[in-house]
Task: inverse folding
């Protein structure tokens, strides 16, 4: 029984999973601030790894859900109009 209690509190085990960090942005930001504040000691700890992974996933999700800025349509139409114009006369 004692082995189970010690194993459950092991420093090698993260307190929160990636999904828990993903679902709670304040918890994720708090952990990321801790990790950034002491990267020499904490960067490779399970909670910093899980929080960092959750942040990467959430950043991708937010970027994907952003509305289009419409640059591709304008760029394509301006290229067509440039191609339709005659070349400038040689001097």
Result:
């Amino acid at each position: 029984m004692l082995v189970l209690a010690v194993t459950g509190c092991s420093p090698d085990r993260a307190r929160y999973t990636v999904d828990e960090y993903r679902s709670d942005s304040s918890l994720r930001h708090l952990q990321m601030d801790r990790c950034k504040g002491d990267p020499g000691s904490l960067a490779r700890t399970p909670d910093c790894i899980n929080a960092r992974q959750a942040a990467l996933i959430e950043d991708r999700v937010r970027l994907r859900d952003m509305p289009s800025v419409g640059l591709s349509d304008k760029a394509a139409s301006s290229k067509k109009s440039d191609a339709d114009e005659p070349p400038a006369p040689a001097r």
